[in-house]
Amino acid sequence: MPELPEVETVRRGLAPVMEGAVIARAELRRPDLRFPFPDRFAEVVTGRRVLALGRRAKYLLIDLEGGDVIIAHLGMSGSFRVVEERGEAVPGDFHVPRGKDERHDHVVLHLQAEGGPRRVIYNDPRRFGFMDLARREALTEHPYLRDLGEEPTGNALDALYLAARFRGRSLPLKAALLDQKTIAGLGNIYVCEALWRAHLSPERAAGTLVTAAGKPRKELSLLTEAIRAVIAEAIEAGGSTLRDHIRADGSLGYFQHSFSVYDREGQACRTLGCKGTIGRIVQSGRSTFQCAACQK
Ligand SMILES: [Zn+2]
Question: What pTM did the predictor assign?
Fold first, then answer.
């Protein structure tokens, strides 16, 4: 499943192609993805100029002239690719490589851009992705977006904010950090990475990182820094694949996912001076990777 850094990489890859371009034609090759397309979707977006490409949590927000916004979610297996005369490009790569089987090309946006005509193609073999439309002024009240917490990429995510959310709670840290009402778009991989970096056990109660007076303990400050750092580094790694792509003229450099703890069961812990081995436990039905020796 694409995580936030991958969605952000897709956004950064699509932005120079889509921003300023006009959607000349929108081709929907089926009536639905995970959900049916909204009524008149093709009609609403046709002839509209793309003003900006944004992101909230793992939602791409394609802002159109006239006040409509396309909300797009990649689901489990969705990806975009750009087709222009000089070849194809896939903006952003994933932990699991994307397929390019044309049978799964479900949406084709035909763009008129300054550099010539282009097609932005949405491919999704498992069809857990979806697209919706909203008015820009109503976006923050949209059911997908209204309950989301702070982004892990901005200054608003700080230790004071998390202290207020964690205070008095016996919920394990892993579950507390996956709660989208607390941190928007943070997923399983980067929660594991951040907890490992902050030397905190995923099973520890969230409330233990907060003093009785409601102040963040030092561990919570370190955890907040770790969350922001793992996300920022992953976005940076994604950005370098985009640069590689531009250099390589069409062939995308592979996104080197180098996780410190995620998916490393049985391997040596990379914490300096730690002799531990990475183990895997299951929490709420999902794998958590951790080093029991240095995460307390
Ligand atoms: Zn360790």
Answer: 0.90
